[in-house]
Amino acid sequence: MQRHTIFRAIRVRCGSCVAAITLLSALALTGDAWAVVRSAPSSPIKQPESNSSVVQPAGITQPAGIQPAGATVQPAPIKPTGTPGASGPKFPEPDANDNDIERLRKLEAIALSSPRKGSAAERTAGRTAWLLGLIYLHGENTPVDRAAARKWFERARQLNEPMGNAGLAWCEIDGCNGPPAPSMARPYLSALRNANSGLALYLEWLIQERAAPVQHSAAPAQELHSNPDAQRMQLLQRAAQAGNTSALNELALGNVAASRYDLAMSQFNAAAKRSPAAASNAHLLGIRIQSKGDSGKGATGRKDPAEWYEQARRYHRGDGVPSNYAEAVRLYQLAAAGGNQPARRMLELIYSRPAPGGVVNIAWMRQLASMDVTAEGAILTFTAPPTPVLYVRDLTPLYEFIPDEWRKERAPLPR
């Protein structure tokens, strides 16, 4: 009965279609035959072999794998040129047979080339432009030309040399071809931090130092500098910890003024390799420490009034040490309290012409520095002023980056 119902349904919907006839034939199987079909075991479905070929549509061949022209199936990996972790390209060395003009022209040809972006040639051109900026800024074997220095710093920055930002920052701080504008240097410092954090920190300290209000006081500059603002001091210390030679030299100068000679000597020595100023200062401080009666721990430990007086004269005259009138007066007082007569006469003279307000008259102190008061009752005589031997700074904070072969002998700047 069920099969007859199915037959009627198919006839109504499909008419005389072939599919209906095929289906009816299958349904016409006898009960035994149908049972045989149901009882026949089914074969499990096998997964295709891993090495079996992919079935392609009829008439379509499988295309071969596309390979680059001239390439092998397994191309060799790309290896970086040079040694990983090695320093960047070196500056071109000057040719001993060339004169100064020829050396500069060769550097300019390299810096003005058009290398491929990101290539080793671009790095060499960028560093050469940076070197040219340093040469013109400091007048190394050529007249100083600060405008040309800025131009080459700009070129170095265009060639992705990060130190070009240091040159442009300095030009804003000190004024290369216009008035100084220290605050305009900060955008360049942001780009410099990754390349040289110590220099970036020192230049930031310098910006803040120059922007600080001038303090009017009768005390010498060395004493004022020994106690700078805490924030600026922190910047300077961080720059020194990062290895910046200008920061190390600056900290050492402050320690000399504060009579912390051992610490100052270690800082001068740490910077001396790249800083002619620090090397000169270390030599001068060494002479001072080894001089008679100066152990570097201050004068209060000595009990000989004559030695106190001689030390006071050195600070008064700036003889091998920075002039420090406050320290000179203190030592004169120690010597006078011990019975030294020249010290007493010097104090009488110092206080005979006070400045308004009763403080020490700096101009009068300067005149007394060249007077001899050792002979009691004698007319004051003028002595020859000592040859000034001063603690110094490098020409600029960028001087340390000039290679030795491009430097010429020069005197650093007094502090």
Feature tags:
single chain; two-stranded antiparallel sheet; 415 residues; 51% helix; elongated; mainly alpha; 4 strands
Notes on the structure:
The protein is mainly alpha-helical. Helices cover 51% and strands 2% of the residues. It has 18 helices and four strands. It has helices at residues 2-14, 18-27, 31-39, 100-111, 120-138, 146-158, 164-174, 186-192, 197-211, 221-225, 230-241, 245-257, 261-271, 276-290, 305-317, 325-337, 341-352, 362-368; strands spanning 371-372, 381-382, 392-393, 413-414. The strands form two sheets. Strands 1-2 form a two-stranded antiparallel sheet. A two-stranded antiparallel ribbon has the order 3-4. Helix 11 (230-241) crosses helix 12 (245-257) and helix 15 (305-317) packs antiparallel against helix 16 (325-337). Mean pLDDT is 75; it is low at 26-31, 33-38, 50-89, 214-226 and 292-302.
